[in-house]
Write a structure and sequence with these properties.
Blueprint: H1 2-30, H2 34-56, H3 65-85, H4 91-95, H5 98-115
Helix pairs in contact: 1-2, 1-5, 2-3, 3-5
């Protein structure tokens, strides 16, 4: 169970980080305000894709898909708030991506607690 949670954390954090980066690149190519909009859209799509991939890899049950997605979204919102307040350096925004994976794991754990 612990290995599945570590893999879930890595998949959600990495895939969402890449999606946020690509979304901000595409948003910035439209206009400078689009940078934040693209990052938000990329983050939401990244959480959905990462949770879907984790379900396909049997890292979580289909029943906990929704709770894991919501937990990842909450983690993304917290990470985005921290990253926006600390844009003066790259370390804190990059480290805040870990909160997305933590949120997904917490959502999965809450889903399992409700099922038992």
């Amino acid at each position: 169970m612990a290995l599945k949670n570590v893999l879930l954390f890595l998949i959600v954090s990495a895939l969402d980080g890449i999606s946020i980066l690509l979304g901000s690149f595409m948003g910035h190519s439209i206009r400078s305000v689009g940078l934040f909009a693209g990052a938000i859209i990329g983050g939401i799509v990244g959480v959905a894709a990462a949770v879907w991939l984790a379900a396909r890899l049997h890292l979580l049950d289909r029943a906990s898909y929704g709770a894991t997605f919501v937990g990842g979204l909450i983690g993304f919102i917290v990470a985005a708030a921290i990253a926006v307040k600390n844009l003066h350096g790259p370390i804190i925004p990059m480290a805040s991506i870990a909160l997305i994976g933590v949120g997904a794991i917490l959502g999965k754990m809450i889903s399992y607690k409700r099922a038992t």
